[in-house]
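To: structure desk
From: M.T.
Subject: fold request, one chain
Message: Could you run this one when you get a chance? Sequence is below, nothing fancy, just the single chain.
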Amino acid sequence: MSPPGGWPRLSLGCGNFGGIGSAPAFFGRGASEQEAFAIMDAAHAGGIVWFDTADAYGGGASETFIGRWRAARAPAGLLLTTKVFHSPHGDPGDRGLAPARLARSLEASLERLGVERVDLYLAHEPDPETPIGETVEAFEELRARGLIGAWGLSNVNAAGIGAALAYGRPALVQNSYSLLERADEAEVLPLCSAEGIAYVPYGPLAGGWLTGKYARGAAYPAGSRMTMRPEPYGRFAVEDVFDGLESLAREAARRGVESAALAFAWVLANPAVTGAVCGPSRPEQLDPVLAALALSLDAAERAELGSYFKAVAWA
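Reply: Done. Structure tokens follow.
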């Protein structure tokens, strides 16, 4: 079930509030509360009314910052997504999608966010130790109790979506998708389209790689993901990618926009994509994301941009 009018085109990713994602090694780092407030203020002023977080982001700090911002700003019509799987305390023994854990985790999330329900509750990743039927039943029970508006899946393949569909219907799938990560085009996107499941990816700028911040032969900028948590993105540091980035930059300049705006618009222009999550670390990084909404790309233009990275292995 989606909100009245459907899911918005843009969602503010809050994974860098108080940390870097769910990694315990980075709890206490990332955007401070003051910086997070500035990002949320800028996003809301730009018309973004859907905030995306997780209980383990920043060890619970992300949800806490959002809750305090809500209390201070009282924004109208705000939609909230949070996720469950990882431990907000960095405890490797406290993870997964067991029904009792879902209920306990949601209770803590609602308290941190300062709300009585969240609009969307996502399984942050699959749990091989809990039968998917039990997880879906737990999600449906939480929805029946009015604690969540809908549930969905993240970081899941087509087989995982199919397994969930045997017991219930996820409202939304959230995977990584960008010009540099297109594996979902093979099975996940067609399945979501066929089943009427919203597809709202994270990572449309591939961890900053599609913004132009990483250049051939240049040192990575201080404080960037490639200096702090490079493991998910190290495979992009190859000549074929740098060739593609240079082509993307030339085309963006020809259109009078930034590379980030064009790369984000490429994701949104896919008819199978419902919307996308942006994760700025500073308020000004929202500018190219908002600019992407004004860019219209037809199928031929999308194909041309995609061809810049044709030598990249998507899987």
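Reply (cont.): Residues 1-174 form a domain with the TIM Barrel fold (CATH 3.20.20.100). Let me know if you need anything else for the meeting.
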